[in-house]
Fold this protein.
Amino acid sequence: MLDDINATFFGDRVQQEISNRIGLYIAPGYAIQGNTLVFFKFGFTRANQSYTRESRGVALDKVIKGKLFGLGIKHAITENIYIGADITKYHYGMNSWVTNINPYEVFVTSKTEQTDASVSFGYKF
């Protein structure tokens, strides 16, 4: 989930949330010093973006699509155990919708991005 973004709409608090993110990517790599792999990943991603009003619940719920890019490293500690780290940037671009929030028609535009960092520890069978 992204950091929540809060705004007001006619005196009502509105909260944006990104959830259910999935992605598909490839991660070509280059081995350095025999037991270390540096890799770059790129692919596609999708997520649900919702705007919720405190007094009325979900006002808008849409699927957004984008691209992802990342860079990482894995290091073999032993033949079967490795550690790793990577950082990934998700770009969903500019998205625009018109929705009816009775009695108003509301135009929503958002530019959504997210950056994730992870550390891994694994066992290779």
About this structure: The chain has a mean pLDDT of 84.
